[in-house]
Amino acid sequence: MAKTPTEARQASSRTTNFRVLIISMVITVLVLGGFAIAFIRTTPAKMEGVPTDTAGEHVSQGSPPDAKPLSK
Predict the structure, then answer these.
(1) CA separation (Å) from 37 to 28, 34, 46, 66, 67?
(2) Is residue 55 a contact partner of residue 61, using CB atoms and an 8 Å limit?
């Protein structure tokens, strides 16, 4: 039986598309969750640069050891 153009444009009542959408979304969430867990586990505990107990030992802080005052 041939379908009319209006019948051919009607949506399918089956839930195949919905199942594919749900399954692919669950897989995507699981993969991204795995990446997040792997990133958190491999990241060092402290990432903020200079430790607080060695603040004066770095070149970027304070003046160089051989600094001389400016003459006026």
Answers:
(1) 14, 5, 17, 47, 48
(2) yes
